[in-house]
Amino acid sequence: MHASWQSSSLVLALLAGPMVLPVSAEKVVGAYIFSRHGDRTAKVLKNTELTDRGYEEVYQSGSYWHDRYIAANSSLQIEGISEKIVKLSQISASTPSDDVLQNSAIALLQGIYPPVGSAAQETLADGSIAKAPLNGYQLIPLSLLDSGAGSEDNTWLQDATGCQNAAVSSNNYYSSSLYNGLLDSTKDFYQSLSPMLNSTFESKDMSFKNAYTIFDYLNVAYIHNTTNTPTADQLEKLLQLANIEQYNLAYNSTEPVRAIAGSQLAGEVLEALNNTITSQGKTKLNIQLGSYGTFLSYFGLAQLPAADVNFTGVPDYASSMSWELVTDSTSDEFPDPSDIHVRFLFHNGTIASGDSPQEYALFNETSTSISWTDFVAKTKEFAITSDEDWCRACGNSDGQCQSVSSSDSGDASSQSASGHDGGVSRPVAGVIGAMVTLAVILGLEALLLAVGGFRIAKKQKASASAAAVAAHDVAENKAASKA
């Protein structure tokens, strides 16, 4: 995210001992964790893969969540959850069908429920002992989601949503004064990076239109390469520009359909937490992996930039957020919904040993704790809770949306896309924190050093017409042809 939340320079180490957690009089009766994947190869090169560093990052964050929600000595342990050997009826894990996200999900789950050693063995009828392999490695099934499939091979976030109206809405950003002003004012900066980019990008593609794709490519180089890398100041400016571009593509207050990924996540969180309550705590912990675009969309919809302007920035690798169901009830019975509150937490990047997520107020509230009733009501204002809701909001008529009438789809998509009555064609009016970020960028310009004549070592050269254009033009034409 923004500089104050960046954690890319963290020295990663596996947890050496128990996490020291805050003392709380409240009981946690359920939780939903949403996590970004760990360090990976660059999107623009395609066939993205989770790196060993990324595996370690997500595993370490998973270890924190174990110490918070599972460990017997935690004051925030989820009531009644199995402390050592996982009970599959208590936990649910899901991820889009994507190599990086699926592998990250496995790493996160390994941290949450680590191997149990000799406890994973049984004595058979003949007296022999069967031992589980890999030191009692715990098997937790992953449900694969259609939404977000192939996220880490898509250089444009709306390609992974499949939502027509969201693609049209995001493309509206390219007609905004904010976009065009930055496209012009940053032209020389992006061209100055050509010695590091010209093995993968054509000169015409080195611009603010590909802000995230370029940042991602050079950020991977900064982490993994020893030569042909940007300076810290250059990388910081690239990040700030990518933050502006991506937040505006993921969310706009006057066109809620642009944040379709966040709306879907909100619906999934609502359904899962409601299941915990209606089942009287039989289901306890839900885990989902996803991409940064889903984070950004949800940040905007839940009005989190009002709590901290950094919520307008791209979250770092292995970032995670959690919605906790908490109660002050002293009864041994599962609490009544009226006694349950929701607490939202977020941590940017890997949760290092001794660190912990921070609580933030949702929906521009003054308190970081919101009643379950209010959480449901406010979430339902933007959550997608069914296939029919999604089809109507997105205006899609193929696949699973064929059964939704075209007239209903047209009416609902127009209303959802605009939030009022203006359709999806209006340009972006601006977003919370965008001008603050712009001011930071302008201040950084004076600090930038001239780029040397280096070149990043090639891993897989992308074609000039496909990978380097960051898929924006393809999506724009696709959306226009379907509109």
TrEMBL record:
Comp. bias intervals (Low complexity): 402-419
List where the protein spans the membrane: 428-451
Keyword annotations for this protein, in alphabetical order, are:
Membrane, Signal, Transmembrane, Transmembrane helix
Superkingdom, taxonomy of origin: Eukaryota
For this UniProt entry, which residues form the secretion signal? 1-25
The entry lists its GO molecular-function terms as: phosphatase activity
| Keyword check for Secreted | no
Disordered: annotated span: 402-422
Enumerate the Pfam families for this protein: His_Phos_2
Similarity section: Belongs to the histidine acid phosphatase family.
Name this protein carries in UniProt = Histidine acid phosphatase
